[in-house]
Design brief:
Layout lengths: L5 H19 L2 E2 H8 L3 H13 L3 E6 L10 E5 L5 E7 L3 E8 L4 E8 L6 H19 L6 E6 L20 H12 L2 E6 H12 L8 E6 L3 E7 L2 E3 L31 H4 L1 H10 L5 H7 L8 H9 L3 H26 L3 E5 H20 L7 E4 L6 H18 L5
Parallel strand pairs: 4-7, 7-8, 9-12, 12-13
Antiparallel strand pairs: 1-3, 2-3, 4-5, 5-6, 9-10, 10-11
Length: 401
């Protein structure tokens, strides 16, 4: 392979320095030298170059007490690009607007009424995003990350048509591109939650794990050797369709009823709570419950942790059902770790995770650690923001290609 040209080498060095500044915050030229392994003159040149391009600026002196050029701190210019992250659910949309470094500048959530058709639902979402952008004081968005239920076509990056998903979801990305002139990246919501968990959550210390998303719908995301694995058709991790014992039928290509979803999804959890004599909890939790914030089943799981023997028995059976999915994942992938995420996983916390780990150990010879998310439902928005940041960095940070 021929040596890189000077321009390609400069671009590579610039991109490396920018990513370090994005990940670690302001650094001195000396710190950049140590972290990159580049020579002092090379670092001085790239600092001058990046300052001239408006991507970084001098943010003051380091706290070392030293003075002079080598003590100056350099950081990324945060408002060089504004970003948005969207969590698109069946009947609601949440949006967060940030700067390039992820500092939140505005956010909003609203129900979306699709009764008047696809365009009406898209227009409501566009209005919500535009309102959040105005409130954040952003002039325009550079990149938008969207987390949505359903499969993403690996060839096109677009949301695939699927039974049970609102038709307006598939029209949203194109409408945002046209109306706002932004780069738009769409990703399956569970995949985004896994990326957020690896970056900010309980999977920060591992490169291989499976995230089980437990909410109104059931899914999974697979991270192997630090990389998200989508599968040949984008369908890796469709755990809700897994045939399991304990249901009244089998799933089909047109729906997951009869599959694992029927055993651990939100409706099944509510039914299980009643079977264990916890039906009296439903009126009390429902009165203060907002389905747009979390499924009713999650509120019941949280309440069961303080409901004495009946609550413990309910959590044990729920854990046994979850262990079926964990052991199936372990038999195929042996990830070493499964993260219980989504609103139900978050509500169960470490107590539920410990119960699941113990029951899965009795089903499988493969050792699997089970952890509970600390991010809850916010993981999708965090993952969508990460996707938007990556899109902006790809455009703004020189690659040397």
């Amino acid at each position: 392979m021929p040596p890189a040209s000077p321009s390609t080498a400069r671009a590579h060095n610039d991109r490396l320095a920018l990513r370090l500044l994005q990940q670690q915050g302001p650094l001195t030229a000396g710190q950049l030298k140590d972290l990159t392994g580049l020579s002092r003159p090379t670092v001085a040149d790239l600092v001058d170059r990046l300052q001239s391009s408006g991507l970084i600026h001098d943010v003051g002196e380091s706290a070392t007490g030293r003075r002079g050029p080598n003590a100056r701190l350099y950081g990324i210019v945060a408002d060089v690009a504004h970003l948005a992250a969207l969590d698109v659910r069946t009947e609601t949309v949440s949006v967060v607007v940030t700067d390039l470094l992820g500092t939140r500048l505005g956010e909003a959530t609203a129900p979306i009424d699709a009764e008047d058709g696809i365009q009406a639902a898209v227009d409501q979402t566009l209005a919500l995003v535009e309102s959040a952008v105005r409130d954040a004081g952003a002039t325009r968005l550079h990149s938008i990350g969207i987390g949505a239920p359903g499969l993403i076509d690996p060839a096109t990056g677009e949301l695939r048509q699927a039974p049970g998903l609102p038709a307006w979801h598939r029209s949203l990305a194109a409408a945002l591109r046209v109306r706002l002139g932004a780069t738009v990246r769409v990703e399956n919501e569970t995949n985004l939650a896994a990326l957020a968990e690896r970056r900010n959550g309980v999977a920060r210390d591992i490169d291989t794990f499976v995230l089980m998303w437990l909410a109104n719908g059931i899914g999974a995301a697979v991270i192997l050797d630090g990389e998200l694995r989508r599968g040949a058709s984008g369908g890796a991790g469709e755990l809700g369709f897994l045939p399991v014992p304990g249901t009244d039928g089998l799933p089909s290509r047109n729906g997951c009823e009869g599959g694992y979803h029927s055993l651990v999804g939100n409706p099944a959890v509510c039914e299980l709570a009643e079977q264990h004599g916890l039906g009296h909890l439903i009126p009390s939790v429902h009165s203060a419950h907002d389905e747009a914030v979390e499924p009713l089943g999650a509120t019941l799981v949280r309440a069961a942790r303080h409901a004495g023997p009946a609550g413990s028995a309910f959590l044990d059976e729920f854990a046994a059902r979850l262990a079926l999915g964990v052991s199936a994942v372990a038999a195929v992938l042996d990830p070493g770790c499964v993260v219980l995420a989504g609103e139900l996983g978050h509500a169960g916390g470490t107590d539920l995770a410990a119960r699941v780990q113990a029951k899965a150990a009795a089903l499988s010879p493969v050792n699997t650690v089970v952890r509970a998310t600390t991010l809850g439902g916010s993981a999708i928005l965090q993952g969508a923001l990460y996707a938007a940041q990556q899109a902006a960095q790809d455009a703004l940070f020189p690659s040397g290609d």
